[in-house]
TrEMBL record, chains A, B:
Protein name: DJ-1/PfpI domain-containing protein
InterPro entries for this protein: Class_I_gatase-like (IPR029062), DJ-1/PfpI (IPR002818), INH-QAR (IPR052158)
Residue ranges of domain DJ-1/PfpI in the record: 6-189
Length: 232, 232
């Protein structure tokens, strides 16, 4: 693949490292390794998007950060090879997220003359948006382990894999909590380019990678079990 | 400590994950664990700061991101308990960084009636800024391993420790490449609050921590050796 058009979907109160882990991996690919990538930061408006607070006054001012200037709104995103969906406190607000869920659904089936996105990639509770958008129906997936019961109960047509740093199911990649986004994106880089490329990127960011998708201690830590799809 | 005033120093073409690793740790402390923190994003102007490209036209457009709206300029930063200095491609441009180096020097000795910062914390090649500012003179430090020779040669009065995920020397914390900032900030949290607090934050972000400061495979990977200060 010579050029990759990447979309980063940003909703209010996203998790900073859910966004930054995969973006760092792709930045290193672009800057240090000369791969040609195009980033589109896609949000509801072109105003800066903040990672918090979700309810003004309930968090300390530390969360009151203004991050990332969007380049595109949900209405004018281009055709994408890869859409990245982070999680975070704002991922639980289904009604507020409705336009984002419609966007995910559209991107996956193709719309406005665009072909379907090549890959869909979620980090942490970003999988909740994918589940609500219906794009995990009939698929295998994982998510962060500290909100396992809540998130898996919102995706009743999905086989949720507990002991997984990431899960691939067709072109949908879901990763576990926060830092799993780094490991998952390195695995995607290995899949698209080569394992050697992924190793070099990992070494550049001095990341002690989980190299196997089931190299995940957190399912045991949080006592999570696989959840099978509801049938009948 | 009941409240921590944190400064994040952002220069053009910083490394995204150098910034986001420590900020994520502190966000989780703030949002999920109720610690009272204040963040000030300090830059040359109040315009958004971009992680790249350092030389327009030399990088792909993937690096053309606008990140973080600064809250303060170098001239009006408040007294800080902790100053975070990321690295990245822009950290090598000594002349352009002069105002930032002066700022680091001032923050460390106290200025404008402010007491000296409680802690100084660098990630990756952020240690190069600390070295140029003179605040690593007579101290032990580490930095990223892929630019080891260049960075250590710019800090001739410093004992550079190769096999280190992070190094503490007085109130100065330096960490290794990129993802080491996550481990180092968790260690600082352990030091300020408690190991239990650091463990809970690490589990929330599902991070497979390096718990010991010398738990670093990258010195061997890159063939780095300790560099002693030049005497005489």
């Amino acid at each position: 693949m010579t050029e990759l058009t990447v979309g980063l979907l940003l909703f209010p109160t996203f998790e900073v490292l859910d966004m930054a882990g995969p973006i760092e991996v792709l930045n290193v690919l672009s800057i240090y390794m000369g791969k040609s990538l195009q980033l589109h930061v896609i949000a509801a408006t072109l105003d800066p998007v903040s990672p918090g607070p979700i309810e003004p006054g309930t968090s300390s001012s530390f969360a009151g950060q203004q991050l990332y200037m969007p380049t595109n709104t949900l209405d004018n995103a281009p055709a994408l090879d890869l859409l990245i969906v982070p999680g975070g406190p704002g991922s639980g607000n289904k009604e507020a997220l409705r336009p984002f869920l419609d966007f995910i659904q559209n991107v996956c089936k193709g719309y406005k003359g665009h072909p379907p996105a090549g890959y869909l990639f979620s980090v942490c509770s970003g999988s909740l948006l994918l589940a609500w958008a219906g794009v995990l129906d009939g698929k295998r997936a994982t998510t962060n382990k500290s909100f396992w019961d809540f998130i898996t109960s919102n995706g009743p047509k999905t086989h949720w894999v507990a002991k997984a740093r990431w899960v691939t199911s067709g072109n949908v990649w879901t990763t576990s909590g926060v830092t799993a986004g780094i490991d998952g994106m390195l695995a995607l880089v290995s899949s698209i380019w080569s394992e050697d490329t992924a190793e070099k990127v990992g070494a550049t960011i001095e990341h002690n990678r989980a190299k196997a998708s089931d190299d995940d201690p957190w399912a045991t830590h949080y006592g999570c079990q696989d959840v099978l799809p509801v049938t009948g």
